[in-house]
Write a structure and sequence with these properties.
Organism: Cupriavidus metallidurans (strain ATCC 43123 / DSM 2839 / NBRC 102507 / CH34)
Number of domains: 5
Oligomer: single chain
InterPro entries: Beta-barrel_RND_2, MdtA-like_BSH, RND_pump_MFP
Radius of gyration: 56 Å
Largest sheet: 7 strands, antiparallel
Helix content: 25-40%
Number of strands: 25
Protein name: Cation/multidrug efflux system, mebrane-fusion component (Modular protein) (RND family)
GO molecular function, one term: efflux transmembrane transporter activity
Number of helices: 9
Pfam families: Beta-barrel_RND_2 (PF25954), BSH_RND (PF25917)
Amino acid sequence: MWGGGGGAKGADCSTGRSRRRLQAPADARLRTFRRTILLFVIRRLTHSRVISILLTGQLLISSLGPRHPRRCLKVIPKTHSRESLAVRRGPPAAPVPPTRYRLSMPVHYAGPEVAAVDAEVRSLAPLPERRRGRRAARPIAAGLAMLALSTALMLAGCGKQAESVEYVRPVRLLQLNPAGGKTAFEFSGEVRPRVESRLGFRVGGKIAARLVDVGATVRKGQPLARLDPTDLGLAEAGARAQYDAAKTDRDLAASDLKRYNELAAKGFISAAEQHRRQATYDSAASKLEQAQANLRNQANQTGYAVLTADADGVVTAIDTEVGQVVTPGQPVIRVAQTAEKEVAIGLPEDQVDMLRGITEVTIRTWSEPDRVLPGRVREISAAADTVTRTYPTRVSVPNPPADLRIGMTAVVTFVRSGDSAAIRIPLTALLQNNGSNQVWVYQPDSGGKGTGGTVNPVPVMLGNADGNLIEVRSGLKPGQVIVTAGVHLLRPGQKVRPMQSIAPAQPASNPGAPLAALDRRLG
């Protein structure tokens, strides 16, 4: 019956209610512990506004949880047929005292039997809507008020803390002094020969032999390669035969002329015949000279079948191999003359005019950096290289040593007497702002008696660079203190503290070797 089923469900609900009542203190203690931990974290992390707001929101969510265990609702079957209700019809159940149950949704049935059940269910006294609304709104209003109050307190606390604490940035300082001395400008280059020839045969033909390899040292007149001499020999033989025939004709014409001259002297022939014989001799003599020249030419052509070196040097490249047919003048072997060598470098466009008139030039190789060779600027190109955008420059090495090989890496140093009033600063001290160069100048507090100071930017005009240093033409004075590290992290008027004792600026030096050592070498 309906009453029996309701009693069983009521017992289950009572058991669940008792279990939840036992768990309620434990849940309350857990929520209290959670609130304590979150409040502690919020106090420790008040410097972060975002974290504080997030944690406060989590605290609000936990505080809005249910204060009482969920009441057990009586579940009523939703679907009943007339037959099932007729079977269950019996004596009416005892009246159920009104309880404060809350139904999730109304239940509707059709028929007189269902109407009785519906009346019994509706007899349950639900909570008034007004009280439910007030009870549900109270935690939400309290939570929102607590969220607004905590956010305002945290923002106010963070603002006061940010205003009261100012970060003093550590900086590295440098005191400016006149540079003076000499300035060295170094440029890396490659050792090259003054003259490098591309040798080729003066006649065409098939290469029969190659007598040298790349890197071989050759002397003037030494054979380098040879052509097949067969065709050239035949041509020379034909020229010699023509020479012999012309010589015979000349000798015959000479004997005839001698005989006719004797007859003309005795009056046996006319003068016209004598002149004709003289012309025949002259023609034969001219043909002999022509045949002789042709023979010399063919002899030279035969000699050109052997390629020889024009001067002392070293073989740098071979462009053809044995068996290849070449034409007259085609490059076959490259020979670099070793009588004079030079170093090829590239000068930047902003230093060409300055370095053009410098006569103190030295050359050092990477293999022997302690050996200094004198140099002389031979030529500076009038047009910049299309790839490197530098001006090709050749620095010759008079009387180069034998171990100065072609292809070595060398360093050319231009030494210029420096200005005694020039100031040079590290490149790390420069700051580019809106197209202008600036330097942070340090001003100590309390006239230099304090432990810190402030920095302000000063515009400067730059000169020539020397390694990691650059010349300052205007804007700074000797004795001033500048910042050399972290210039992109400063702002005007910012308080800073020195990381170390202020170091004086050092004179400009050669990146490869100190100027003192360079002066000793040049002296």
